[in-house]
Amino acid sequence: MNRAGQPQGSMGIDIGDVDRDGDDDLFVTNLDNEGNTLYLNVGSGLFEDRTAEFGLFKLGLTGFGTRFMDYDNDGWLDLVVVNGAVRHVGSQLQNGDPYPLKQRSQLFRNDRGRKFVDVSDSAGPPFAQLQVARGAATGDLDNDGDIDLVVFNNSGPVRVLQNEVGSRGHWLGVRAIDTRYKRDAVQARVSLAGQRSAAKIVQTDGSYCVASDPRVLFGLGSGSAAQTVRVQWAGGQVEEFRNLAIDRQQLAARRGRARAGRRSQGSEHPLSRHRNRLVGQLGQGRTVDAPQGQSADDADLRDQAASPRQRPSDTNACPRARTRSWPATV
Description:
2% of the residues lie in helices and 33% in strands.
């Protein structure tokens, strides 16, 4: 329920530390006459509705899939919400639209934990399109160090939105593997040592009816120093992986049957394992080839370095999106 004690639709959900105070906050999407809700974690198991204070209150859109994601790699979690009505939109119905439930999606930039700024209008053509969106899955699909987005629509195509902004800043990707079971260490908490607020949970859940990339990605902005990663495994054991080079994917393997702190071979998004191809509607129904690479083998901890993109000198530039991309203001 919201701050007025009113129950809400509660379709999509995600968790993340939006104000970087060391605990996880909640964001829940709701119906068009309710507005979405940001629950800020104030400690001791208590959450407060801070939607209006953070600039996120808006009526008229029905939210479904949502994810906290640092799209510009500045170290602050931004927010994406994909929308689609469940009641007919009058103007579309009058115009004879056979599926009159289409709405725009939204992208919000985190202003250093003080508020969110709606940058949807500058986020490129994909955020201007009307669609009946439901699921929103995230992951670094092309292994270039920034978070991409896959939107699932009712009565419409799946859309792959390629991020072309985040890789301008420095980053560090981590795939946490529990070598006892040879699988991703879901619910492990991964943090950067010395930065209490920079912590993320290994998860594929959240959003709405989708599964996302289990790897965690830290935006480092202009920071270029090697990092120490701390992993708190499910069960409470804590391990550190020191002197990890940045601008690449690293593997944090639970000690026991394999050596930890080495880079992973082909630690790519699960969607790219099958012939490394992503099939999506990108305006003209084209098929997009993902970067070639070997499929991930959790038992094989050989080295791999992801090649960072060459960064433009102007990190504040905002190029317009191509058909397959969605750069936004940084």
